[in-house]
Design brief:
This protein is α+β, with helices and mostly antiparallel strands. It is built from eleven helices and ten strands. Bound molecules: 2-{3-[(4-chloropyridin-2-yl)amino]phenoxy}-N-methylacetamide (2NL).
Length: 356
Amino acid sequence: MPSDDLNTMLSDALPKIGAAADIEALEDIRVSLLGKAGMITLAMKGLGGLDPEARKARGAELNVLKTELTEALAARRGTLEAAALEARLAAQKIDISAPPRPEVTGAIHPISRTMEEIAAIFGAQGFAVKEGPDIEDDWTAFGALNIPVHHPARAMMDTFYLNAAFGDRRALLRPHTSSVQTRTMLSETPPIRIIVPGRTYRSDHDATHSPMFHQCEGLVIGKDITLGHLKGCLIDFLRAYFDAPGLPVRFRASYFPFTEPSMEVDIGWNRKTGEIGKGGDWLEILGSGMVHANVLANCGIDPREFQGFAFGMGIERVTMLKHGIADLRLFYESDVRWLRHYGFSPLAPAMLHEGF
Ligand code: 2NL
């Protein structure tokens, strides 16, 4: 049987431990029992004064008592800590039933989207994207491209001229992106394989013309570039862009001052339904041709050594055809309802996938 004083110590301590209100109170109790001057510690120290027989018996009793108290302290500490954690979690609780703040998501403009798609398709054919200034001089925009001084494209009614000059050249807003190709031919040596998407300006304003619009032109120059390359390149592009593997494509003889021979490129469609790739009608979609020898020479490339092809298309036009957008003017109105309807998710960028 344990000694009476130890029994009393146990029966006094256990309820106190069980009732300790917090960790601090529990710690005070632990120190009073097991600390340096605690009751158990002192009782342990008192063992030295006993004879061996009694010391052994009381020592064993003290160890049992110490174990019981230690376990009781640990159990109470566990309970108090769990309660404290519970209280902290309750205080920090997030109310997930609260309605979120409305989040405004922007959309990619259809013109930007088309330019990204065109860059992805030609990018896979090895083309680089080039950009250049919107304000140009008349030699870079016209003269270099074999467009004679009295050509209608140079007339005031088509081109926006500025009251400024670059030396003896008149400043203007570029009426096509070809000036960027002029600059590229002047600054780089072939092989050249570029597309030039960008803004262009013409003094024209009605339901189907905007004074600012977008074009994408392309230029390929090398030693052995042929009309066959032009055809393969553009057929592949049109079938990828319109996502129509069997799309009929027709090359029709035409005229541009900067190409010889020149061809307009038509695709098959149904004039009545607007469906692309079906029906017996033809729709003009691109201008193209083999770069004129004069243009190469003007831009410092020897036409006896190099040749190439070029093409151009209107971004608005191919965007309207692909997405069934009827009115050109809405592209520039910045009406958020229109943008939300015709715009594209910035999280799903244009890229070349299996379907192309
Ligand atoms: C069209 C016609 C075309 C080009 C653009 C070009 C550029 C250089 C040299 C030769 Cl630097 N050609 N560009 C060639 C043929 C047609 O575009 O209908 N565009 C919307």
